[in-house]
């Protein structure tokens, strides 16, 4: 799991939010399948009316060094912008493994509403060691493994706006992604302390060898 708190600065996020809210919204339940179909109670931006907005967010995600470091993204399988008004929620569900013909390895939520503007609306994920509840500041993006059971708590005041999406990684296995992240972190730390030398070059070589073995 990775929380990037400054993915958008507040000014850019507020401008993006203004454009989104000027776009029509439709009922969100129609796009849900499986266990999510009966749990979804929200509104969804009409993607046929706002493709430029979704493309802009997707391009930012794919070009962000921190997203690349964590997710090793190949492409974004699907995206949507959700709005939760007072009384709305999204009950426990897990996301589909395949969307638009692409495998979903990682899910993300980009938070587009100031925390002060709504009560409730926490993103809650079920983990082996308990629940994780998130309500980060506006402009934050949270990335996590697709398949975890999660929910959005009921809104008791105001509205919650967020963009959600699903990433197909170049490396489908999370343990392999973690090994690559650890190697890259080790190389960066070593370079800062010692500069470039044979050991640093060996770390880069092994990371590259593993990428060639594991990338799809």
List the main descriptive attributes of the protein structure presented here.
seven-stranded antiparallel β-sheet, five-stranded antiparallel β-sheet, 34% strand, elongated
Task: Give a short synopsis of this structure.
The protein is of the alpha+beta class and 216 residues long. 32% of the residues lie in helices and 34% in strands.
Shape: elongated
Largest sheet: 7 strands, antiparallel
Mean pLDDT: 91
Alpha-carbon distance between the two ends: 22 Å
- SS element count, helices: 5
Proportion of residues in helical segments: 25-40%
Q: Which parts are unreliable, with pLDDT below 50 for 5 consecutive residues or more?
A: none
Rounded to an integer in angstroms, the radius of gyration calculated over CA atoms is 19 Å
Q: Indicate the structural class.
A: alpha+beta
| Beta strands, count | 16
Strand content: 25-35%
User: Which strand order do you get reading across the main beta sheet?
Assistant: 1-13-9-16-5-4-2
**SSE order, as H and E?**
EHEEEHHEEEEEEEEEEEEHH
